[in-house]
């Protein structure tokens, strides 16, 4: 099969993580979520990993060049020869340009940017309804998966809290950043004919089968 070099795009709460898990199984693609590959690089003690560690320990943002370098390291390591699934990078046009150059230098190119969309109201509804058990991190949803007793974990009886990440003001901030920085990227990929749109309001199984069908078509086209 030909390479599937993929980028996942979409607002928080649209279901990117769920779809990524399924695509990894379907196509046996390595999943490069920004946080994970940075942690891996730190653990492996590569030069870039040591550099990234410095930023992370100071609580500073890891520069784009460094993140892209860590991705490039993984591209060169052989575990992404059949493709990859990138999540969390690129988030801005300059990052996308950087990634494009890194791929070009390796005579590779992106196969598609998969956008899983969801309107702000739905993102707020999904994320702000989450409650997490203070003891073991069991996750509930006030609307979709409520606990048997209000405010109490079914499994261990501990108190359910709303994490800072799930508070409406935090979600609104993340959405504002997404609209400002990442949405222009959607047009950028569209202009390059790489964008594929999926409706994150559909049930996860349906989103999954649509993405699968799209990728199967892309893989076929690449082989012809
Ligand atoms: Zn619990």
SSE blueprint:
Elements: E1 4-9, H1 16-27, E2 31-33, H2 34-44, H3 47-57, H4 64-76, E3 83-87, H5 93-104, E4 112-117, H6 120-128, E5 130-133, E6 139-141, E7 160-161, H7 168-191, E8 195-199, H8 204-223
Parallel strand pairs: 1-3, 1-4, 2-3, 4-8
Antiparallel strand pairs: 5-6, 5-7
Helix pairs in contact: 1-8, 2-3, 2-4, 3-4, 4-5, 6-7
The chain binds zinc ion.
Zinc ion binds next to loops.
Q: What labels describe this entry?
A:
single chain; alpha/beta; five-stranded parallel beta sheet; 8 helices; globular; binds zinc ion
Helix content: 40-55%
Number of helices: 8
Helices and strands: which structural class? alpha/beta
Small molecules held by this entry = zinc ion
How many beta-strand segments? Answer: 8
Low-confidence stretches: none
Q: What are the secondary-structure elements, in order, as H or E?
A: EHEHHHEHEHEEEHEH
Which word captures the global form? globular
Terminal Cα separation, in Å? 11 Å
Q: What is the CA-atom radius of gyration, in angstroms? A: 19 Å
Strand order of the largest sheet: 2-3-1-4-8
Roughly what fraction of the amino acids lie in strands? Answer: 15-25%
Q: Main beta sheet, described?
A: 5 strands, parallel
Mean pLDDT: 93
